[in-house]
Amino acid sequence: MRRLAALAPLALLVGASPVATLKVDVDALRNARGVIRLCLTAVASNFPTCEDDARAVARSVPASQRSLAYDGLPPGGYAVAIIHDENGNGKLDTFAGIPREGFGFSRNPRIAFGPPRFDAARFTVQQGGEEQRIRMRYMF
């Protein structure tokens, strides 16, 4: 009987959904002022802002913190968008449509006019986890 009782917690895990961890490292940050705002989404139509996406995960961390982990993610396709909100006003400041603050995307896609498409930044999180190293870009 004791053996069966000891195995009971394992039986709960058999039916559990797999989860993974995503580690995001931020490179080439201009300075440690303000915050880094990260948006993680699996929905192409909500990239890169994560607006109207109930399942998106948005986080803000001090700019001195250069890495962050998202735990408990279901495996699947995701994209990350980052802004370096140097003045802490909650948005990416622009001048004539050109970003004045830093930005970056998962997979570090080529940037032309405007943000990349979801597919260019999309990566797959497997059950074992994933790591993304995102290089910040500054136009000014």
UniProtKB/TrEMBL annotation:
<feature type="signal peptide">
    <location>
        <begin position="1"/>
        <end position="22"/>
    </location>
</feature>
<protein>
    <submittedName>
        <fullName>Uncharacterized protein (DUF2141 family)</fullName>
    </submittedName>
</protein>
<keyword id="KW-0732">Signal</keyword>
<dbReference type="Pfam" id="PF09912">
    <property type="entry name" value="DUF2141"/>
</dbReference>
<dbReference type="InterPro" id="IPR018673">
    <property type="entry name" value="DUF2141"/>
</dbReference>
